[in-house]
Design brief:
mainly alpha; Helix Hairpins; 0% strand
């Protein structure tokens, strides 16, 4: 459970770094707006619930494509073509930025094992000094 929490913390830090970077700051906003726009479109024109439309947008943009929902009219099919072409690019750019920030943060932190060994050695030296 702890490794999962540590990974989630690292991901949160990477997302924060993407948000603070002026070059990538717009990506989360654009991705969110894209998902919201698509969800509203499909909710309105496909007669799906909003949650079904949101689900379809996420599944489509992540290229999972379960096939349980699909556009039924020519208009929504044409919209879906453009939605996939633009949305996939935005999502890939966002995920790439998050991954780059995650790797950068991990590289800056350095390996944890040498630091732990040094801390233990200092503690052992302090105990020897206190005893002697």
């Amino acid at each position: 459970m702890i490794p999962l929490l540590l990974a989630a913390r690292g991901l949160a830090r990477a997302l924060t770094a993407v948000w603070r970077d002026p070059e990538t700051k717009a990506l989360p906003v654009v991705a969110g707006a894209l998902v919201l726009t698509g969800s509203i479109f499909y909710w309105r024109f496909e007669d799906w619930t909003f949650f079904e439309a949101l689900y379809f947008c996420i599944v489509t943009l992540t290229t999972v494509g379960y096939g349980d929902f699909s556009p039924t009219t020519t208009g929504t099919q044409i919209f879906t073509i453009f939605y996939i072409l633009t949305g996939f690019g935005v999502l890939v750019a966002l995920l790439t930025s998050v991954a780059q920030q995650y790797i950068r943060i991990k590289a800056e932190a350095g390996p944890r094992t040498p630091r732990l060994k040094a801390r233990r050695q200092r503690k052992a030296s302090a105990e020897v000094d206190a005893a002697g």
